[in-house]
């Protein structure tokens, strides 16, 4: 009987040892259902120390903070328990059901994956109006408005749209990103470059600093009520609170989506009363003229006739009037040119059509007057400008005879051999001269190639001597190898220089991997005191050790501090230099 009890006990102990030896890697979420205005905490927890952790893509969420890495050792009655956790804080981007997919980690050479977890995001939930709550402070202290210069314009009259971000004093904007581009249906639009310069203003009667994020000049292309859609941005801000974090700071960093309100513009149609028959849609304040490069020339010569409009208005949105010339003048297709700038008040500049005209016969030919009509929104009237009639005098050339038979008139034009003189303004003589040739033998090139080897031999010997000295420079070789090693470990971090969170997420494991490879330290032993001790024992200078510890602290602080307080490029350069110094100094 006692033997059976002993056997059962041994089996239970073996089973318990087997169960305790199993590796667990799980995903834990703070809640399975949350509002779109709440945050979700996600923990990826393992019971054995692992490396090469890979998080899933958080579809439907943006990372508000993290990853935060923590480890826990517990000894109870001689039994050791260990846990390692990667924590993320996520902000939903929309409503719906979303799956936190599998995370991966490598433990003792094997890859383990978590099971997917489904989370439901519902409509925004009411939150307490707590002045110490960072999200509440942001919702009350940051506002974006859409400023419209004219809410009741005429068709094709310019309207300026300004997106202003008002920020209450004490709140710090660390960064922002646009959630899509502003859309202006039924408008011609032009973006106006702005500088993010803080200015003093008021919002609902209270003093508020503000910045102008974007400005556009719009020209409505359709009458009636036209909607200016909301423009949304995601901001990362630091908010002062009464609570202190582990570093003694009073600021809390949060993400918030800010949207401008929808605006409606009532676009008026242009009046029908008094509209000229030649009106082509020009709206503004313009001048108009027709000019020619010459008024006296010979047959088959050419001249330039220019139709030009200058002023302020929708210069890119209407057609210029066409010249109507006598059939005895050969006219080529016009060349269109524009010199238009778009400012806050709208377009201004000039546009023109330039015609090349070639007369074929002797005589005087009129370029008839043509008119240009536009609508002036200031005076609310149509205006018409007529050009002067221009007489072209063709001095020399064949006569153009006209013979009338019965009641019909026919033009009998004398055939002319084209001389090409109509394009005299084009240079056709290239002034080419023949190239003198000479025999290769006893030429300058021949003697040059003959002497060249005697000139290059001393250079080759000098280069070989430098190469030998370079190879014998042991200290220099160590320095170069150290630099290559540093760049190898930090190559992935360099790719993330433009993304603060991704950069420090990659930099910290790169530093850890370097230490594991160099001084055989386990991940579970990663403490600043242990690292300092091991590096000092291997003859690394105290200054270099301090620099390495400072880099590790920067990685920790970067999870909590605003981007403006962390210089990413400086930390990358410092990482390269520090790893290089350790590699040169260790066990030297």
TrEMBL record:
Q: Which UniProt keywords apply?
A: Membrane, Signal, Transmembrane, Transmembrane helix
This protein's superkingdom? Answer: Bacteria
Query: Which chain regions cross the lipid bilayer?
Result: 445-463
The leader peptide range reads: 1-21
A Pfam family matched by this chain, by name? BatD
- Official protein name in the record: Protein BatD
Q: Which organism is it from?
A: Kordia antarctica
Taxonomic lineage:
Bacteria, Pseudomonadati, Bacteroidota, Flavobacteriia, Flavobacteriales
């Amino acid at each position: 009987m006692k033997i059976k009890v002993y056997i059962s006990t041994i089996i239970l102990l073996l089973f318990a040892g087997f169960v305790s030896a199993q590796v667990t890697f799980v995903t834990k979420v703070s809640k399975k259902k949350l509002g779109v205005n709440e945050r979700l905490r996600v923990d990826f927890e393992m019971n054995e120390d692992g490396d090469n952790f890979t998080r899933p893509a958080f579809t439907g969420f943006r990372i508000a903070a993290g990853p935060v890495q923590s480890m826990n050792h517990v000894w109870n009655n001689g039994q050791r328990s260990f846990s390692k956790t990667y924590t993320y804080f996520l902000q939903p981007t929309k409503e719906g059901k979303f799956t936190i997919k599998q995370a991966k980690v490598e433990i003792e050479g094997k890859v383990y994956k978590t099971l997917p977890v489904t989370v439901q995001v519902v409509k925004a939930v009411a939150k307490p109006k707590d002045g110490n709550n960072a999200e509440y402070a942001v919702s009350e202290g940051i506002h974006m408005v859409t400023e419209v210069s004219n809410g009741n314009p005429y068709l094709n009259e310019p309207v300026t749209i300004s997106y202003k971000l008002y920020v209450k004093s004490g709140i710090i904007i660390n960064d922002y990103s646009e959630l899509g581009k502003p859309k202006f249906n039924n408008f011609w639009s032009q973006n106006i470059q702005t500088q993010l310069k803080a200015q003093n203003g008021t919002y609902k009667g209270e003093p508020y600093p503000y910045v102008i994020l974007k400005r556009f000049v719009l020209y409505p292309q359709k009458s009636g009520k036209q909607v200016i859609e909301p423009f949304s941005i995601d901001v990362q801000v630091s908010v002062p609170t009464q609570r202190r974090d582990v570093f003694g700071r009073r600021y809390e960093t949060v993400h918030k989506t800010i949207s401008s309100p929808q605006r409606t513009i009532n676009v008026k149609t242009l009046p029908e009363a008094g509209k000229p028959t030649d009106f082509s849609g020009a709206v503004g304040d313009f001048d108009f003229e027709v000019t020619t490069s010459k008024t006296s020339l010979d047959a088959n010569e050419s001249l330039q006739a220019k139709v030009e409009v200058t002023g302020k208005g929708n210069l890119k949105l209407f057609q210029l009037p066409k010249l109507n010339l006598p059939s005895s003048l050969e006219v080529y297709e016009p060349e269109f040119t524009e010199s238009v700038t778009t400012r806050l008040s709208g377009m201004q500049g000039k546009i023109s059509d330039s015609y090349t005209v070639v007369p074929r016969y002797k005589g005087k030919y009129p370029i008839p007057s043509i008119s240009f009509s536009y609508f002036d929104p200031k005076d609310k009237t149509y205006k018409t400008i007529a050009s002067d009639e221009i007489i072209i005098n063709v001095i020399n050339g064949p006569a153009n005879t006209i013979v009338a038979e019965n009641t019909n008139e026919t033009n009998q034009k004398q055939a002319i051999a084209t001389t090409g003189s109509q394009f005299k303004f084009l240079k056709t003589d290239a002034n080419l001269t023949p190239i003198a040739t000479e025999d290769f033998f006893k030429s300058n090139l021949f003697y040059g190639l003959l002497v060249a080897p005697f000139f290059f031999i001393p250079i080759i010997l000098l280069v070989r001597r430098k190469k030998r000295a370079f190879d014998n420079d042991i200290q220099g070789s160590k320095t170069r190898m150290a630099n290559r090693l540093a760049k190898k470990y930090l190559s992935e971090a360099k790719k993330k220089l433009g993304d603060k969170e991704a950069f420090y997420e990659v930099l910290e494991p790169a530093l850890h991997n370097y230490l594991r490879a160099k001084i055989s330290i386990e991940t579970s032993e990663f403490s600043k005191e242990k690292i300092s001790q091991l590096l000092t024992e291997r003859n690394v200078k105290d200054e270099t050790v301090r620099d390495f510890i400072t880099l590790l602290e920067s990685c920790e602080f970067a999870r909590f501090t605003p981007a403006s307080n962390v210089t990413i490029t400086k930390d990358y350069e410092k990482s390269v230099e520090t790893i290089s110094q350790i590699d040169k100094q260790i066990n030297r």
